[in-house]
Design brief:
Layout lengths: L24 H14 L1 H4 L21 H10 L13 H13 L4
Amino acid sequence: MPQNPSWQPAVATSVAPVVAGAAAPEAIKQGRRVYASTCARCHGVNMVNTGASTFDLREFPLDQKARFVQSVLHGKGAMPAWEGSVTPEEVEALWAYVSTRQTP
């Protein structure tokens, strides 16, 4: 899978990384905010959608974070690329939120 050399994980961030399936509560909160402003219009409010026209993110395989990051940054199918519109920290926070499957 080709990686864009301009995107590098941040060395020091204010968002705690997801480690072994456990994300810091603040990372999840930030991910929820980013999701609401960036992703919800297509993937559904609080990740709740029918899955008919867009991927149901509550079913995203937890062992495929690299695929998630690739899709967010470079797009896939009808999904636009978000590289340059979201920061690496925001992508990490999105993964923290999506990987929890939390729907308030």
